User: Fold this.
Amino acid sequence: MKIRLSIIAAITSACALCACDDDLSGIGTGMMPEQDSLSTYYEAYPIITRTVKTGPVVARTNSCYIGSIIDPETKAVTTSSFLAQFHLQEEYTLPPIEKIVKDEDGNIKADSCVLRILHDKFYGDSLTTMKLTVTDLDLNNVMEENEMYYTDIDASKYVNPTPKVRKTLTYAVIDRNLPITSTSLESGNYRSIPVHIGADYGTYILKNYYEHPEFYKNSYTFSHNVCPGFYVEHSGGIGSLINSDVSVLDVYFKYADTDTTTTNAWMRLGATQEVLQNTRYDHEIPEEMLLTDAEHPYTYIKSPAGLHTEIDLPVKEMLSSKHQNDTINCIRLTLRRYNNSKQDHTNLKQPETILLIGKGKADEFFNENKLPDNETCFMASYNSSSNAYTFSNIAPLVAYLRKLRDNEAGVTAEDDEATKEQKRNEWEAKNPDWQTFELLPVKAFYNESTNYYGQSVRTLIGLQNDYNLSSVKLEGSPAGEVSVNVIYSSFKR
Assistant:
């Protein structure tokens, strides 16, 4: 019992030290009574990192982005456009048709129709002149809820080949024609880019309502029979990028309130989370950002869907025959951030959270709305005090990989060491990426609650690709400037 309790104490102490201090040189000395015959020590292994283009990721977001911006630090260019459907509340009703004010020929008419792109967040210069083009989408090829869309979505597949709407306008983040009290964030108002798409389109929506009420049963029937949405395309300018949480489609009309009075009214439809919103991202990445060598001892993580850091963990070395009888208590991985070379208010922020996950596993992870299990994938948040991201203990990952390799390689207890080694080598040759992982920027969603003791508790409830603009430069390269620290324990023989 004494030995057992001492082992637990040693492991607990070692992991506590691992989580708090990078200097592990004193671990293993004087920690255990001599008669317990347990030693604890650490080794540092260099790791290989490199910058990789992320490519398209699942475009699951409630926000849309429009514009184009240059990262002042790296000179990378990010350009965004988006497609959006509009939500119709079930059992939505308008005034009876006989009350609608009609034109001279007795036909239903709308006074105007405006698409408003509402926003309260942006990147870049708020006064830069930008240009966008709005086109209606195709009823013969509607975006479907059960399909998976990515950040390289081909908008041309969904745009109406004979558009009812095609409007181009210039805009700036802040409309200088409006008083500052209306456009400041302190006002509590959303800023708005109004796109006047014409009374004809509004008339088309009203007319369909009265001729085909079945089309207005819900959002699905509306998008498949009346309005499949719009493509808002960046079509000129560089210097700002807008984050729009919601866009609205307003159809204005009049109806007779009484025999002698008429009332101005509007029908409002919102591009909300109940329907699809897909943003397309295009990046122009300077070649220098992809170089990782002695002259460029750093890697990048850039969102949305731009660049990420790929890392080779020396799992094989950690599990070598030298350590076949050792227990891995703690593995600590710290990646420090380089500060921006120039301090500028337009510099992009670093990602708040990154995910460590096996190479090629991210699509399945996000498609199935998984959460980190702290065995095959881990999260780390940026720490401003240390100016780094730290994975305090990824030992369960190495234990998982050891078990996976031996099981799939067919290693048995009866095998001699030479046979085990041969089986493992053959399996590793067939699975060359088994030690390779990706560091991806992610956005975490938490549920806030209070426990029995009145303490605030945060529970992770969701994780998605980070679609905000962010960029960070991390130390590391194929030369192995960065090390991973491993704490082992073993019985003295």
Notes: Residues 1-14, 16-30 have pLDDT under 50 and may be disordered. The chain has two domains: 42-55+288-491, 77-283. Helices lie at 2-20, 180-183, 199-211, 219-225, 315-318, 362-367, 395-409, 417-430.
